[in-house]
Amino acid sequence: MSGAGVAQHLLPRRLGAMLALAVPLAVTVAAALAPAAVQNKWIVSAEKPKLEKISPLAGLGRLFGMRAIVEFPAQPAQIAVIGTAAVMVALPYRDHLALLPGMSHAESLDFAREIAGKMLIAAVLVLFLLSIGDYLYQRFVFMRRMRMTKQELRDEYRQQEGDPHVKQKLRAIRRDRARKRMMANVPKADVVITNPTHYAVALQYNAETMTAPKLLAKGHDDVAARIREVASKHKIPVVRNPPLARVLYDTARLDEEIPVEHYQAVAKVIGYVYKLQGKTPKKPPAPPGAKRGAAGKKAGAPPVLNIRKPK
């Protein structure tokens, strides 16, 4: 058989051997590219390219940076592990190598294809395991690098929620304005009940228009002292009743009527004030919508103060 005939006869086997080697090689390439694709993914962006990314100096900095120095020994170690796995697979066939000179071309190609295939499969498996470990390590490094410092957390909180110092100042301004509005209502009060030094509450009551006294102002310590000062300036009666002052401070709300359970105690205080001023208490008006019952009493009306002029 001529040389051309031998070449034509061996062509299908050569193509088969090349195909057998191409499949493991393709798997190896895919295994090498898969971790990078999974970690970084595909990103399409319309942003302008940054020139510092292609700067030679920046590239040298990354090449000889601390991270590169730490990770450099890992690359030869990975190559050594993959090579060791491939060699371990080929070792059982070392006795067959002496028989290669006596084999035909077809037998030699089949033998080489079998060994190469097994070596590539072993290398791919080891590479896959190393890729998983490298993925976990790179993700850990990335998450640690992206972790925010305490100063960055404070700056982000200020951007989202506002500067705490500014918010504190705004709250102080609102409290000051509310206190000024409250103090402006103190001259309208009919009586101020004190602790006598720590608490003070200012009450307004008009028997012709109200069913119960209304709390105009309340405060403790400095605010209480200011309430007593304004009451003295406008000649508003100041009555010392520590238990009542404290309970009204805790339970009553500004610009609202006092709770029902304190009607009787407050009625005594207002009666005492009426006695000092020589006023005659009038009967409170009936609440709107009140109906009279069979006994002639107003049905459905809330409790009202029963203030009598002391004898």
Describe the secondary-structure layout.
Blueprint: H1 3-40, H2 56-63, H3 66-71, H4 74-90, H5 105-146, H6 150-161, H7 164-185, E1 191-194, E2 199-204, E3 214-220, H8 222-233, E4 238-240, H9 242-251, H10 263-277, E5 291-292, E6 298-299
Parallel strand pairs: 1-4
Antiparallel strand pairs: 1-2, 2-3, 5-6
Helix pairs in contact: 1-5, 4-5
Order of helices and strands: HHHHHHHEEEHEHHEE
Helix vs. strand class: alpha+beta
Whole-number mean pLDDT = 75
If helices are DSSP runs of H or I spanning 4 or more residues, what is the number of helices? 10
Largest sheet, in brief, is: 4 strands, mixed
Could you give the distance between the termini? 148 Å
Features:
single chain, 311 residues, alpha+beta, 4-stranded mixed β-sheet, two-stranded antiparallel ribbon, 10 helices, 59% helix, rod-shaped, disordered C terminus
Quickly describe the structure.
The protein is α+β, with helices and mostly antiparallel strands and 311 residues long.
Describe this entry's structure for a reader.
- 59% of the residues lie in helices and 8% in strands.
- The protein is an alpha+beta fold.
- Strands 3-2-1-4 form a four-stranded mixed sheet, sandwiched between helices. The protein has a two-stranded antiparallel ribbon with strand order 5-6.
- Helix 4 runs antiparallel to helix 5.
- It is rod-shaped.
- The termini are far apart.
- Mean pLDDT is 75; it is low at 284-311.
